[in-house]
Each structure stands twice: as structure tokens, then as C-alpha cells.
TrEMBL record:
Site description Important for substrate specificity, residues in chain: Y14, Q75, E160
Protein name: 7-methyl-GTP pyrophosphatase
Species this protein is from: Idiomarina seosinensis
Cofactor: a divalent metal cation
NCBIfam families cross-referenced by the UniProt entry: maf
Family, as annotated: Belongs to the Maf family. YceF subfamily.
Catalysed reaction, written as an equation: N(7)-methyl-GTP + H2O = N(7)-methyl-GMP + diphosphate + H(+)
């Protein structure tokens, strides 16, 4: 397997947890960029742009990263054409979840793999669809937010935890997309660079 340094441009513990399951050796660096949406920018364009910007920002952080492969990722939720990010407060989280009751919410996750040595990048946007229960009460939503504190999660829930109790159905190609890192697409990108966690010479 390739010995290229692999860097995750994120401080998200959820994305780290996904990478930890993939038998990959990597380091972590917080990208620290402006994530403001541009005028007239669509959700798909936003997440792909931010994923790429995060990866490129990290490439400039340390000299050791200038030959690395850097993973960037960004996610938003879209409900009735409104883009929703992280709630940051319990009140906002409950409010977001109330908007979702009985509706299908699309989660768009942008993924970028930046080859800092070649200054080339692969980007993709992966959708995932979540239909929320139509019988959810405000008391249930408040209790959920109190228990799991999903304040740093786009859409105000953690699908890998108690958030599953909010759903009627899920639809998508890769469940890790909903957590914020589309593993199938990432592994496809990494194989192009000679990184394969199933290779016999790991």
C-alpha cells in the first residue's frame, strides 16, 4: 500500500470514528476556514467547495502536509429548499427537528481528496435521504436533544445513536454519508492513489 501521508482536514470525532474503522493510518488537522454560503450558491456547490477549501487550507498549514493526501468533507441538510447547518444551541436543535416532522430531508455531503504534491483534487457530492416520523412530539424532540446534545451535527441528530428513533425511513448508498464521511467514495478515491486497506502489504 502507498506510504503517502494521509490527513483528515476535520476536528469532527464522527469522521475520525469512520476512518478508524477503515484500517487507515492518518493524522488530523482542523482546517479553520470561513464556511459562509456564497450568494446564489446551491447546497451541492456549497459542500463541494467547502470540502475542497478545507483540504487545501490544511495543505498550507505544515510543510509535512505539502506532499500529503488530504481529506476534506462538509455537510448540510436541506428541507423544503432551505439549507440548514449545525444548530449550536439546544433551542435551535429542537426548532430544526420540528421542521423535519413528517418530511423527507436531504443531506448533502461534499467529499474532497486533495493531492497536495500534484495540486490536484477529486470532489464529489453524495446525497442521503431521511424521512422523519410524522408522529413526533415536541416533548420527544426536546428529550432527544437533551440526551444526545447533537449541537455540532447538521440536522440536529446523530443517526449512529438515538437519532435513529426519530426516523421513519432512510435511503442512500452509504450509511456513513449521513455521519459526514462517504466511505465508499473515499475508498474509491484512495485506491486511485494506491491506498487500499485490503492490500496484503499493509
Amino acid at each position: 500500500m502507498s506510504q503517502r501521508n494521509l490527513v483528515l482536514a476535520s476536528s469532527s470525532p464522527y469522521r475520525r470514528a469512520i476512518l478508524d474503522t477503515l484500517n487507515l493510518t492518518y493524522s488530523v488537522c482542523k482546517p479553520d476556514i470561513d464556511e459562509t454560503q456564497l450568494a446564489q450558491e446551491k447546497a451541492t456547490e456549497l459542500v463541494m467547495r467547502l470540502a475542497e477549501e478545507k483540504a487545501k487550507a490544511v495543505a498550507k498549514r505544515e510543510s509535512s502536509y505539502q506532499t500529503a493526501l488530504i481529506i476534506g468533507s462538509d455537510q448540510v441538510a436541506v428541507c423544503e429548499e432551505q439549507i440548514l447547518g449545525k444548530p449550536h444551541t439546544q433551542e435551535n436543535a429542537v426548532s430544526q427537528l420540528q421542521q423535519f416532522v413528517g418530511k423527507t430531508v436531504t443531506f448533502y455531503t461534499g467529499l474532497a481528496l486533495y493531492d497536495a504534491e500534484e495540486e490536484s483534487v477529486d470532489t464529489v457530492c453524495v446525497p442521503f435521504y431521511v424521512t422523519f416520523r410524522d408522529d413526533l412530539t415536541r416533548a420527544e424532540l426536546e428529550r432527544y436533544v437533551e440526551l444526545e446534545q447533537p449541537l455540532d451535527c447538521a440536522g440536529s441528530f446523530k443517526s449512529e445513536g438515538l437519532g435513529i428513533s426519530l426516523f421513519k425511513s432512510l435511503q442512500g448508498d452509504d450509511p456513513n454519508t449521513l455521519i459526514g464521511l462517504p466511505s465508499i467514495e473515499l475508498l474509491k478515491m484512495l485506491r486511485k492513489h494506491g491506498i487500499n486497506p485490503l492490500a496484503s502489504d499493509i
